[in-house]
Design brief:
The protein is mainly α. The chain is built from 14 helices and no strands.
Length: 327
Amino acid sequence: MQKYIAQRLLLTIPTLVLVTVGIFVLLRVLLPSDVVDLIIGEYGRNDPTLRAALEKELGLTGSLYHQYFDWVGVSWFWGGPTGLIQGDLGESLHSGRPVLGELQKRVPVSVELGLWGLLCGVIISVPMGVYSALRQDQFADYGLRSIAIMLAALPNFWIAVLIITFGSIWFNWAPPINFEYIYQDPVAHFKIMALPALIIGLTPSGSLIRLTRTQMLEVLRQDYIRTAHAKGLSQNTVLYKHALRNGLIPVVTLVGTVLLPNIIAGTVIFEQIFIIPGMGRYLVDAVNNLDYPVIQGLVFVFSVVLVLSVIMTDIVYAFLDPRIRFD
């Protein structure tokens, strides 16, 4: 197991290198707009002196190769500036504040919101999927399958807007405006995070209910399940110890490789709706201002989260299915 984990971690290095190249090329080469043009405005674009001075101030001079090496931090080895290798994500082109300092405050908020949303989705969907499989082709099964289709079809951000709109109209209610960190006021922090986390978990619940039901139906028809019943094991022992662990392997794959990264990245919308100071709001402001260092740093952080979630998914396999041996 340790050897496998070490191999997977080493394989993340070329993956993240390709990610940095893709991020840089998309922002600095393929993007038609220019942050210098955005800052100096229409009248300053015809002033080459002003443009050159601003490019030098923002660190946008030199070839693209040198700019990339400066951002990654490779040029640090021969006397250049620090970069990603040293944990330096640069400074915002507009505020002048270090990107890493902003992310240290915002990343935990977004990750927490995404994990709470995923946890709500799993808590809602897995029991419903198991119960639907146990009541196959009965009224409860049809009802739960209809709920799953409805949850998958309705956009969760639309549900959030409806809740806020009708809550304010009918009940004179609105979500808290002032954000409280968990170390400041845990109770107020939970009240702020509970509703958006629950709504975030609704949409993936539809897919998880259907997948859990399908996998449980397949597992319950296996020979070893009939053998377990023939030995006189109780229904709960057969269900939870034998069937559920094997049936959850595809569910873990979906959660770890698809839903978790999408949920964490999808908190952008909910941070705007519920005024939560996470990576989402920071990214939206950076995109509007073409703030290259901020966008590059945020996309790189999202990429790291995706890679680590895939690795964690593979490791969880071994704990769910003892037949899997990585060594």
